[in-house]
Amino acid sequence: MELVARQESDLTSIAAEVVKLLGERKVIALKGQMGAGKTTFIRYLAKEMGVKDEVSSPTYGYVNEYESSLYGPVYHFDLYRLETLEDAYNIGIEEYLYSGGICIIEWPEVIQTLLGNDTFWIEFNVAQNDNRIIRLVGLD
Asked: Which residue(s) pair with 89 in the sheet?
């Protein structure tokens, strides 16, 4: 499924669609170039999930934890600075992935081998007119 965000406010309805399609999945992996809008989208997604806290990028701490009134713990990862799978193990990635909480992961490529078939993948692309093309992958 491909969705287009022509302006930032479009992310509200796209986040609502993602929550509706999420089902029992606990891991959401976001791929896309730097500046494609992944962190901005996560702010809208977290709000749609019932998170009241301020959502910001955990670039230097790797993970931020939020509490959702609907889903319990929500973990927001930014793995951009991780170079190896061993680095991911060192931050305790497995504990988070198997905690039962929602894990939203930016730059998931380094841990792709740890992610199950039930991972909800979202790909972000910037179109020439600065629209964001958001593809929801593996919905079956």
From this structure: none
Lookup: tokens for 96? 């988070």
The two beta strands, 27-32 and 120-126, are parallel
Backbone angles phi, psi at 133, to 5 degrees: -95, 120
Residue 35 token pair: 């500046």
pLDDT tens, residue by residue, 6-24: 888 899 999 999 999 998 9
User: 47: burial class by Cβ within 10 Å (0-12, 13-18, 19+)?
Assistant: middle
* pTM exceeds 0.90 for this model: yes
Average pLDDT in the chain? 92
CATH fold label, 2-137 = Rossmann fold (3.40.50)
Q: What is the dihedral of CA 43, 16, 26, 70, to 10 degrees?
A: 80
